[in-house]
Specification:
With 242 residues, the protein is an alpha+beta fold. It has 7 helices and 11 strands. The protein is globular.
Length: 242
C-alpha cells in the first residue's frame, strides 16, 4: 500500500460526513436517500463494508486530510472523536462527501482542491481499515464541545469519562510553558482552511469489534479528551498559501 497524503475542502455538508467506495456495494448513488430511510438496510450496508456515514451537529463545510499509512504524532494525539470500520473498495475510488444527493458527477480529488459536495480519492482496489478522526477547533462531531462545556450550559452533554474544562485552563494545565493559540486564548477568528477538521486514514484491515450505531443508523462516534490540550492541526494547504 503506497503512502499518500492530501488535503481538500468540502464547502457544503448536510450534517454528515460519509466515506464509501464509489461502487457503494452495488447500489446507485441516486438511491441513497431511500436506502438511508431504512435503518436496518443501512446497518447491513455498513457492516458489509459498503459505506461509513457519521452524523455532524451542523452543516458547515470542512477541511479533510486523507492519510494512507501511519498518522503523525500530532494526528494521533489530538483527535477528540473517532469512527473506524472496514471498507471494501473494489473500484479503487474512495468517495468522501457530506451529501446524499448530487446532480453532478463526483471528480477525483487532488491536493489543495475545493469541492461543493465532495469527490473521490483514487487508491489501490482492496479492503481497508478506515479511521475518521475529528479535531478541534472546527470539530463538528461534538467532541470538543463536550470538553469545553465547563459551566454545564453548553449544547453537548459530556460522554462518560470526559471531564469538561475551560479551554484556557486545560491548555495552561497541560502545556504550562507554551503560548496558547488565538482560538483558545481569545476565541479569535479561524479562517477557511486554517485547520484540519477531519483526518481520513486508510490502513490494512485488522480485527475490530462490531461497530456501535446511532439511533438513525449512522456509525457512532467514539469520544475522548486528549491527555494534552489540542492546539489544532494547521492545514498544509493554508501554510503554503501564507
Amino acid at each position: 500500500m503506497e503512502a499518500k497524503r492530501l488535503e481538500f475542502i468540502i464547502h457544503e455538508a448536510g450534517c454528515m460526513i460519509m466515506i464509501a467506495p464509489m461502487s457503494l456495494g452495488g447500489h446507485a448513488y441516486e438511491d441513497l436517500l431511500d436506502l438511508f430511510d431504512d435503518q436496518q438496510k443501512l446497518r447491513e450496508l455498513i457492516l458489509a463494508g459498503a459505506m461509513m456515514p457519521m452524523d455532524l451537529y451542523q452543516d458547515d463545510g470542512y477541511l479533510v486530510r486523507v492519510v494512507i499509512g501511519d498518522l503523525n504524532e500530532q494526528e494521533s494525539a489530538e483527535w477528540t472523536a473517532r469512527a473506524r470500520w472496514h471498507l471494501k473498495v473494489p473500484c479503487g475510488k474512495l468517495l468522501i462527501t457530506g451529501a446524499l444527493d448530487n446532480d453532478d458527477e463526483f471528480e477525483p480529488i487532488k491536493d489543495g482542491d475545493k469541492f461543493w459536495l465532495g469527490g473521490y480519492v483514487e487508491i489501490e482496489p482492496g479492503e481497508y481499515l478506515v479511521e475518521v478522526l475529528s479535531y478541534a477547533p472546527g470539530d463538528l462531531s461534538t467532541g470538543w464541545g463536550q470538553i469545553e462545556n465547563h459551566d454545564g450550559k453548553g449544547l453537548f452533554r459530556p460522554t462518560a469519562g470526559i471531564k469538561p474544562e475551560k479551554p484556557l485552563d486545560y491548555f495552561k494545565r497541560t502545556r504550562p510553558n507554551e503560548e496558547a493559540p488565538a482560538w483558545i486564548r481569545d476565541e479569535g477568528f479561524i479562517g477557511e482552511a486554517e485547520y484540519v477538521n477531519f483526518v481520513v486514514r486508510l490502513a490494512p484491515p485488522v480485527d475490530l469489534p462490531a461497530p456501535q450505531f446511532e439511533a438513525g443508523g449512522f456509525l457512532q462516534w467514539e469520544f475522548r479528551k486528549p491527555e494534552i490540550c489540542p492546539v489544532g492541526i494547521r492545514s498544509a494547504t493554508f501554510e503554503k498559501a501564507e
